[in-house]
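Q: Structure tokens for this one, please.
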Amino acid sequence: MRHPFIAGNWKMHKTVHEAVVYVKEFRSLVKDIEDVEIVLAPTFTAIHACAEAARNSKVGIAGQNLHWEKQGAFTGEIGAPMVREAGADYVLIGHSERRQYFGETDQSVNRKLGAALGAGLIAIVCVGETLDERERNQTLAVLDRQIKDGFDGITGDQIAGLVVAYEPVWAIGTGRTATSALAQEVHAHIRQRLRQWFGAPAADQCHVIYGGSVKPENTKELLAQPDVDGALVGGASLDIKNFFEIVNRSRG
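A: Here is the predicted structure, written as tokens:
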């Protein structure tokens, strides 16, 4: 059985001090929640401090990105072993903002995924179409390409431990959200492709979560869909009460 998976992506927000204050308060709010996997993705500078603040709690910590090389002359980048050593157990890969603003491709996502798996990190791999691609009815073809190329060379056993985050680019930070029916249709397609290409056990165990203007008001309806296993939450995760409410409403 797949428990709900709720991840908060803080993007480029919160100082180390602000992040630690949040984690310390948040861990006490969720201390009795047993049936939801909860992750927070702070900035790189706050990973270690947040991991310490979250130690022995229900809250996992994620990096927001990584480089595919362990180390080297890559100014401004961070390797998977460094993310892991700082205290993260998870890492985001291929977020639409990375693809849009920093030129990430399905091929770089694939290399980063290999690096994450090699370092023992649980990867949260983001896929999704732009508004233009949706309006041209290319959503499923885009997702097929992103999954096929992004997961090239990955085994079924590895897929089973991944999180795939479907985030329609047109819904991120815009206030627009895919309807629950649309989210279910796309998530079912993703799971069908995982089953086809990596086997039924992998598809049944892999979490497929939704990202795109998730807030407390739409959480329950989205997660009521059979193939929507959780949420990747952006702006709403910055407010501790909102994010707790999303986690609370994701429970069975």
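A few notes: Strands lie at 5-9, 37-41, 59-63, 90-93, 122-127, 163-166, 207-211, 230-233. The chain has one domain: 5-249.
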